[in-house]
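During data preparation, a discrete fold description was generated, and the record follows.
___
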Amino acid sequence: MNIYVLLKKTLDSEEKIIISDGKIEDDDVEYIINPYDEYAIEEAIKQRDLHGGEVTILTIGDEASEKQLRTALAMGADKAILINTEEDLDEGDQYTTAKILATYFMDKEIDLILAGNVAIDEASGQVGPRLATSLDIPYVTTIVGLEIEGTNVKIEKDVEGDIEIIESSLPILVTCQQGLNEPRYPSLPGIMKSRSKPLEEIEIDDLALDEEDVKAKTKTIDMFLQPEKSAGKMLEGEPKEQVKELVSLLKNKDKIL
């Protein structure tokens, strides 16, 4: 099987976000594999071990993205590809990402593409469906179960706390949700092996794309942090007195009533 995983690097969720002039300051911050993408990597490795083939990790980014690709290789993927847009692309959006990926996959034989359900930085959940639509293959989002038999696929999809069973066929794109599996940690032997696994770097020009082809369709007007929550107010006295004070606050201070 030809199995591909779409990977995105994101800020570590433990990092303190600092915004200056409408942009996140990312100097000296730690980046990680988008956590939902880890489920995709784990599932790709499991399906390869069951059905044979190879797992290719694919990301769009800069030279620093190699760190996350090497981590995915250490987890057990077979090879990785970095589409380096650092020199050719100032800004992009979900359309940009899907366009670049669709162009890359245009002449590839695909059985299965896996991605994270969302990225924790923008959480749009658009790239997978956009890519599948461009490739004219079926897709299912938020999966928590995947069984493949021949070219037939049985999927368990999370639908707000319930499970929907969907049957389809290969090739297919799926986006992975928490509950699908438990991502493994890279082992020491895996880390050592990852250093010799192939990591290919290609440029936008190699895909016969120019800046106009991948120009973003959306624009970020502003970016800001949520205001810090003020301390809560403790209501004192008997319950009747507390109720009267609460109603007064809601009516006169917060203007809710």
About this structure: The longest strand covers residues 139-149. The chain has two domains: 2-207, 226-257. The two ends are 61 Å apart (CA to CA). The chain has a mean pLDDT of 90.
